[in-house]
Amino acid sequence: MSTNPLDTDAGSELFSNYDAELKLCQADLNQKLDEIPELTGEQRKQAIRHAERAVDEAKELLDSMNLERSKTPTSQRNKINARFRDQQSDIDALSRKLKSLSSDRRALFGDRYTDDDGDQPADIQLQQRQQLLSGTERLDRSSQRLKESQRIANETEEIGAGTLADLVQQRETIEHTRGNLLQSEGFVDRSVQTLRGMSRRMATNRIITIAIITVLVLLIIGVIYSKFR
Questions:
Q1: What are the tens digits of pLDDT across the range 82-119?
Q2: What is the biggest distance separating any 2 CA atoms in the chain, rounded to whole angstroms?
Q3: Looking at CB atoms within 10 Å, which of 26, 107, 130, 143 has the fewest?
Q4: Which long-range contacts (CB under 8 A, 24 or more apart) does 23-28 make?
């Protein structure tokens, strides 16, 4: 029947939850189908109704898994698809087995079974009641799954809002840091300009000092020359 359990990295967490739930449903359905051949009459009809509801539930789980696998990243979709096909094949086989057991009218109705058409209205009413009960239960299960999906969507929305708030805060931090960097660059530019001005003044002072020394040297030479003339 089923293959190895679904790897945790093979798909979304929700798909894995559906897969685990479907395995439990399959085990329950297998047990019901194994019990049906031993029953007759009203007990057999009741067991078949229970099995039909289990099949409906399994098909609903398959529908949910099919929806989830379409949201799975492409890199993980091969494992998801293989697992889905295996589960679908198992459920189809169980459904065919149930249909075969349901078609055994003599075992279903016991000694009351005949080929006359007199029993057909009762059979139709029974089938309609079964369909109505099955439809009601499917609606209830669908409502529960819808509520669960809504809860997950709300949680996802809250996580997204929190992430957006974090991103806004990080953006403000980056802008503040950028402003500090621009201000620091302004300080550096002014410091460079100040250093350049000091360097020019030092060069000018050096030239003036050399000129003064040269003039003094020339004066001293002139005085000495005038004395020995």
A1: 888 998 899 899 889 888 888 765 454 554 444 444 44
A2: 165
A3: 143
A4: 25/54, 25/57, 25/58, 25/61, 26/1, 26/2, 26/58, 26/90, 26/91, 26/94, 28/54
**Orientation of helix 13-35 relative to helix 77-102, angle to 10°:** 20
Q: Which helix (H) or strand (E) holds 210?
A: helix 120-227
Q: Of 12, 49, 44, which Cα lies nearest the Cα of 29?
A: 49
Distance CA 23, CA 91 (A): 10
What distance in Å separates the CA atoms of residue 9 and residue 12, rounded to the nearest whole number? 8
Q: What is the total residue count of the chain?
A: 229
3-state secondary structure 111-124: HHCCCCHHHHHHHH
Collapsed DSSP state (helix, strand, coil) of residue 3: coil
The DSSP call for residue 99 is H
Name, in order, each residue with C-beta under 8 angstroms of 45's C-beta and a sequence gap of 6 or more.
108, 126
Q: How far apart are CA 51 and CA 45, in angstroms?
A: 10
For 39-70, b/e burial (b = at least 16 CB within 10 A) is bbeeebbebbbebbbbbbbbbbbbebbeebbe
Which residue, chain included where needed, has tokens 């609606």? 139
Residue with more model confidence, 103 or 121: 103
Structure tokens, 31: 């047990």
